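Structure ticket #2291
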Amino acid sequence: MKSDDPVRREREEAWIGDSVLGLYARKWILESTGAMDAGVFAAMTSNQFLSTIGNPTAVEARIGREYAASGLEAAFALIEREILPRFASQQRRRQPMPGRRVGRK
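Resolution: structure written out below.
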């Protein structure tokens, strides 16, 4: 049952969106690396990362609404369009450059 309270409704949608994002992240990590990586999962689903896109609750709620309205494939497509590119960009920046000595100038 959906709440009439907009804050509660957004939190409920975010609760579902968080699960959809978590499923997408695990699937993407396994497909792209061939291994389970809890660190990448935590980074991709963290509020710290999501806040680079917008309010984390609002981001997750949008995913939850897309899932409720159009299903899992549509929610995954939203993540691929709007979240994955930003995450991939951040991950590339975090990787040390080959031949570069870490910790030295």
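Closing remark: The CA atoms of residues 21 and 79 lie 7 Å apart.
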